Structures are given as structure tokens and as C-alpha cells.
Amino acid sequence: MRPFVRDTLTLQSGQVVLAVVHALRAFLVLRWLGPVEFGPLALAQSLVVFVSLVDASAIGRAALVEVARAVASRDHDGMAGALSRFLGLHVVLSVGIVAIVWWLGPWVSEAAYGRAEVGHYARWLALPLVLEAPFLTISVVLQAARRVRTLVAIEAARAGLLLVSTLVALVVQASAWSVVAAGIATSGLTLMGTLAGQGWLRRAVEGLPSWQTLVRRVPRERFGPTMQSGGLVALDKHAGNLAGHVPVLLLGLVDTTAVAHLAAAIRVMAVPAPLLTGLARSLDTTLALRAARGSRDVVVAWREATWRAAGAWLPIAMLMAAAAWVGMVPVLGEAYAPARAAILPLLVQSIALGAGVGLGPAYRALDAVWRSLVVGLLVLAVAIGPGWWMVETWGVAGAAWFHAVRTGATIGLGAIVVSGLARIAPRASGTPSRPSASHGGQP
């Protein structure tokens, strides 16, 4: 079996496991908290994205290229340098984000929503950004070394740990603070496990340095090139995440409980979304390799992948929408009945995501991330006025339609831009990475 096919199948099998685990956790949180308790928590999650300036994890996209080259050439010193730069930058940026959220969170939530507790939730929801730096570092090196089975195994283990910790916390006390505490506990345990398991990890990946070596190298590294290559990607990913949370933030200005209905519908419809994540990871590698042949090859491969992904995703999205419509109230309770109004527009949004799964990898393979950022911000700027009117007029349904229209417009305009790059860019150089959320990020 070809390595690409084998890796894709492995990733997809792992994403199925993640989808099931995330679905179970979403059911626990939504059912046990109810809309009144869950609404402020969902709003706090969106507030963290709003207050943050960049997505620190996106710096891994620049590190992934450097690590992959070092692995291919068995340059152990190059691998250590790339990982040290990623680890150092991620910690610094994450600490900065957490500081901003701690400073502005309660003030913004009190000024905008009249509920300071939303900001207090946001403070603690931001803390895992710092704790997960070593785990993300290992994810980068495993992906670069094509140790896909190991990567899938540790991601599944982390998801299972989060599910168990959430269940235990809710049994002790069914509150939003219990969910927050479960997330922090999971990040802390993941941190300890990642640090303690360095011996096993170093046997799995040839040349992987110890954590002590990485930390000692951080002060000596030059971070300029990594920031230059990864900074724009981090801004683009953050802009996409923010755009995906804007409907929630606007709806919170109208009705905090309605936020719970919208967020519940989004989480239910996003249950199969990890399947798209696995495909996007594979496309990151494939399109980056095509970039060495020229931009036209990248666009041809992207078009082919788009048609196949859209065709395969359409029945999945429709089945999920039908299951959500039928099962949401019996499973989650009558209190979530208003969430049904969001299912149809979220189906449209989900179909658009399936068609746009290759856009992020294509932008990066063509070195056109700045175009992705411009497209996303332009569409958001044009759509936010009509979107606010839709939220005020139709509540949950209006926010969901705003989400769907913005996502579809971003992907449609992005497809035009990427197609045009085949004619104006003679060659391209790729930046394989984890998938961007800039074309329809989920709150």
C-alpha cells in the first residue's frame, strides 16, 4: 500500500475515534448543564478567541516544514533547533494570550454582556494554551516523521482522558466550572505524560532530543525566520477562528441562553468534522509535494481533491443533519428544542466546509496565506452588518444563517483566488501543516 494511502486511512480511522469521543463529551456537557448554565460557558469560549491576537499553535506550521526536512536528511541538530524555536515561541505567545485574557476578559464580558462570570470562565479556559505546548511539539515531530499511528494513538488517548475527566467532574458537581476544571486537569495530565514519556518518544523518532536539550537551546535560537514564516499563518488561523465565533458573540448581545442553543447545534453538526481534519492533514503533505513541480500542479491536485471531498462529504452532512433534527430533543432534552432552527443553515455551512477542505493546504502550498487572510477579513467586513441584522431579527436561526453565508462566501471567493494563482504564480513552495480554521472555524 502506498504511504500516502496508508497514512490517510490511519488518520481517518483515528479521526473516527475522535469524533465518537467528542460526541460523547458534548452530550455529557450539554445534557448535564442545560442551556442556562451552558450558554455563558459557550460565550466564554468565543470570548477567548475574540480577545486573543494570534493562534499560537499555528506557529507549528512553520516548524513542521523545518522538522520534516531535518528528519528526511537525518539532521538531528536541525530538528532540535526547529523544535526549540517552536516550543519557545509557543510558550511566549501563549503566556501573552493568557495574560491578555486575564486582563481584558471580565471587563469585556461585563461591558458587552453585563455578565462578569463569562470573563472569569474565559480566564481559566485560556490556561491550557500554555500547558499543551509540549504535546503540540510532539505532534509536530510525529507528523513530520510520518509516525501517523503513534500520533493518532496519543491524540485518541488525550481525547479519552478529557472525556473521563469531564464525566468525573460533572458527577462531582454539574456546573460550568466543573467543565473548565476538567479541561485544565486534562491539559495538566497531558503535560506530565508528555514530559514523562520522553524515553519512549525518543525511541519512536530517531534523533528526537530530550526536553532538557530543547529548553536549554531556546535562549540561543534565532526566532526571526520562524516568526516570519509562521506569523502570517498564525494571524490567518486566528482570523478564521474569530470569524467562526462572531455569530456566537453577536447572539450573546441579544440572549445568552440562545447562545447555548446555537452552540449546541454547532457541536452536534460538527460531530463528523474530525474526518475533514484527517483529509486536510493528508492534503497538507500532498499539495506541498506538488508545489515543487509548480503552482499549476498544486491547483490541479486541489481541484481533484475538492470534487472528491465534496462528493464524499455531502451524504455525511445530510445524514448528520437528519440525525440532529430527529435526535436532538430526545437526547439533549426539551430545553434544546430551539436549537433545531439552526440545523438547516448549519447543514449548508457543513456542505461548504466539505468543499473547502483543501483551501487551507492550497493557500499554504502556494505561499499565498496573505491572500487567505485578506479574503477572510474582506468577507467578514462585508457580512457583519447584514449578519447583525439577521441575529437581531431571527435570533438563533439568524446567527446560524450568518455563519453559513459567511463560510460559503469565504470558500467561494477563496476558490476563485486559488484557481487564479495557477496563472499568475510560476512556482510555489509548500508549507505543510495542520488544517486552518480560516474558512469556517467552529466555536
Report on the architecture of this protein.
This protein has 443 residues and is mostly helical. It has one domain (3-424). 82% of the residues lie in helices and 0% in strands. The longest helix is centred in the first third of the chain and has 49 residues, at 3-51. It is globular, with a radius of gyration of 21 Å. Mean pLDDT is 86; it is low at 425-440.
Round the Cα radius of gyration to an integer and report it. 21 Å
What is the number of E strands?
0
% residues in beta strands: under 5%
For the termini, the CA-CA separation is 37 Å
Reported for the largest beta sheet, the result is: none
* Oligomer designation: single chain
N to C succession of SSEs: HHHHHHHHHHHHHHHHHH
The outline comes out as globular
User: What is the residue-mean pLDDT, rounded to a whole number?
Assistant: 86
Number of domains: 1
Q: Which secondary-structure class do the elements indicate?
A: mainly alpha
Number of helices: 18
Give the helix proportion (percent range): over 70%
Summarize the structure.
By secondary structure, the chain is mostly helical. It is built from 18 helices and no strands.
